[in-house]
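pipeline stage [seq->struct] | target=DUF1146 domain-containing protein | organism=Paenibacillus phytorum | residues=71
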Amino acid sequence: MMNMVDIAVYIMCIGLSWWALQAFRFDVLLKRPKAAQAIMLQILLSIALGHLVASFFIQYLGLSMGFGKMF
């Protein structure tokens, strides 16, 4: 059951990071912001950022569930 929650958190965080990166102006930094490489960069950045955020929340959830077993 916990694995399903982990997958859902990862997908949600990657989606949220993709949505948040849409507000970032890549056209200022890149020569061709509409090129396939620029889109791939956005996808990879959203996966990396989503993975970091999801890992934080999953680790926090695991630690908070384990914290109750300590006492």
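stage status: PASS
auto-comment: Helices lie at 2-21, 36-70. Residues 36-70 form the longest helix (35 residues).
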